[in-house]
Design a protein that fits this description.
It is built from 17 helices and 13 strands. Helix 7 packs antiparallel against helix 15. The longest helix is centred in the middle third of the chain and has 25 residues. The structure holds guanosine-5'-diphosphate.
């Protein structure tokens, strides 16, 4: 653990915090015990009287120059000191805002290194904030997630994480388990006080409530997964039903190729779009056709089928201005075996209908076995009449997507699990608590029950980073960028 007490063993780190390349301003960060002495050597404030007795004030921006060992001016800069513990890392830190040219940044950084700073590892500033107890592991990871957030939903979810929403839920759960452990311990050590200790029946009851909370939290991992990249969504259907037109209508931009010749979208095209605040990764796939396809198109078709399989949501497009074709039914059968979410879109509703989906969608016509199959396949699948051309029905499509992904239990504004590691640890805690519940029911000795409770307590602690091995901490922070 890095602390401010053993200053001698801690190095002073520095890194450029802004992206590489030419820019108006670059920010160089410094953190560690030598920060103040290094800044004093290389930074000459202008119009600020500083003496030994009145050094630079903390958290005040100064204008001045950075000089080299020959007292030559390297750059005109703004500099701010942030004395411990009121800084990002809880150590003495400084930021130098210099001009953004490559040579200037290299020269300022070089001067810092010559005066005793060392280059920071990726994520080392945040790692110090974590090791010095300013933030927990959930919040540290949220910093990285916030930097790489690609949409508003991801940004809002990680901001809540950073503010400690998820952390406090996990901390409360741990606190409760700790109390149960203390009570069990008390009744083992002092059986005469058993009355005062909460009995196992109460623990079991409270544990049931906690399990529900943690299970709801674990269920958010599904949202957490797609929040970063968007819900993988495939537009599937035979050629010419209007897949590319639908993609364009959703994107409100002419990205996909729209043509009257079947089979033009030979490969797949993916775009990120927000539908009612839900990030969607929308892929227009090659039309799926049974016969007479050339080799290139076959590759596209194979890819569409694989893509439909790996997608969370499939938008299955049919053209109701035409009779349903064998290809349509063939695709239905393929989709039938996939357990992803599906929406059937009856496109070209602006044209006179030749295919009445309502008839097709019932088993009232026993002479036609395809019709009967259909009714079994898509009985509970939302079906919407749309026109990619006029935009009719698109609002209903968006509302349906929203309903599918923002369930009553999981509001999109809740605390959300976004890390696979956190999800696995949460599942471990849930399974250990379930074991403890069963053990209580079976009348297993209390010291055995406390082993399960302790395992749950430890797993939750690992999410916060309280009981986590050094190598795991190193691995987590290695994924960060330099300067953060
Ligand atoms: P894809 O092969 O499934 O991607 O189909 P396209 O999007 O390329 O559309 C094929 C043809 O159908 C084009 O001429 C489109 O203009 C037309 N089309 C697509 N959607 C509609 C619609 O909702 N109404 C009408 N009238 N025509 C449409």
């Amino acid at each position: 653990m890095l602390t401010n007490n053993n200053d001698n063993t801690i190095n002073t780190i520095t890194a450029v915090a802004t992206p590489p390349g030419v820019g108006a301003v670059a920010i160089i960060r410094i953190s560690g015990p030598k920060t103040n002495s290094i800044i004093k050597k290389i930074f000459i404030p202008k119009k600020a009287k500083t003496t030994k007795k009145t050094p630079l004030k903390s958290h005040k921006m100064y204008y001045g120059t950075i000089i080299d060992e020959n007292h030559q001016i390297i750059d005109e800069v703004m500099c701010v000191l942030m004395n411990k513990p009121h800084s990002y890392t809880c150590e003495d830190t400084a930021e130098i805002h210099c001009h953004g040219g490559l040579a200037t940044v290299a020269a300022v950084l070089g001067t810092l290194l010559e005066n005793g700073a060392t280059l920071a590892q990726p994520g080392e500033f945040t790692k110090r904030a974590f090791l010095n107890g300013r933030i927990d592991l959930i919040q540290a990871e949220a910093v990285m997630e916030l930097i790489s957030a690609k949409n508003n939903l991801a940004r809002r979810a990680t901001l809540r994480k950073l503010a400690g929403g998820l952390s406090s839920k996990i901390k409360q759960a741990r606190q409760q388990i700790l109390l149960w452990l203390a009570n069990i311990e008390l009744s083992i050590d002092y059986p005469e006080h058993e009355e005062e200790a909460s009995n196992l029946a109460t623990i079991q009851q409270d544990c049931g409530v906690l399990l529900q909370t943690l299970t709801n939290l674990a269920a958010t991992a599904n949202i957490g997964n797609f929040i970063k990249t968007g819900v993988p969504t495939a537009i599937i259907g035979k050629p010419n039903v209007g897949k590319s037109s639908l993609m364009n209508a959703i994107l409100q931009a002419e990205r996909a190729i729209v043509t009257e010749i079947p089979g033009t979208t030979r490969d797949t095209l993916t775009e990120n779009v927000s539908v009612r605040n839900i990030p969607i990764q929308l892929t227009d796939t090659a039309g799926i056709r049974q016969n007479k396809v050339d080799k290139v198109e076959q590759l596209g078709i194979d890819r569409s089928l694989a893509l439909a399989e790996s997608s969370e949501l499939v938008l299955f497009v049919l053209d109701i201005s035409e009779q349903l074709q064998p290809e349509d039914t063939a695709i239905m059968h393929l989709l039938q075996n996939q357990d992803n979410k599906k929406i059937i879109l009856l496109n070209k509703a602006d044209l006179p209908p030749k295919c009445e989906w309502e008839n097709f969608n019932t088993s009232e016509n026993p002479e036609n076995p395809e019709n009967s199959n259909k009714s079994n396949i898509f009985q509970n699948t939302p079906t919407i009449k749309i026109s990619a051309k006029t935009g009719t029905g698109l609002n209903e499509l968006y509302a349906t997507i929203e309903k599918m992904f923002v369930s009553e239990n999981i509001a999109i504004d809740d605390d959300i699990i976004t890390k696979e590691r956190d999800k696995l640890l949460l599942q471990t805690a849930i399974s250990q608590l379930n074991t403890a519940m069963t053990e209580i029911t079976q009348g297993v000795p209390e010291d055995i029950i406390s082993i399960s409770l302790r395992a749950a307590y430890i797993a939750l602690g690992e999410i916060l980073g309280e009981t986590v091995a050094d190598d795991i901490v190193d691995k987590i922070f290695a994924e960060f960028c330099v300067g953060k």
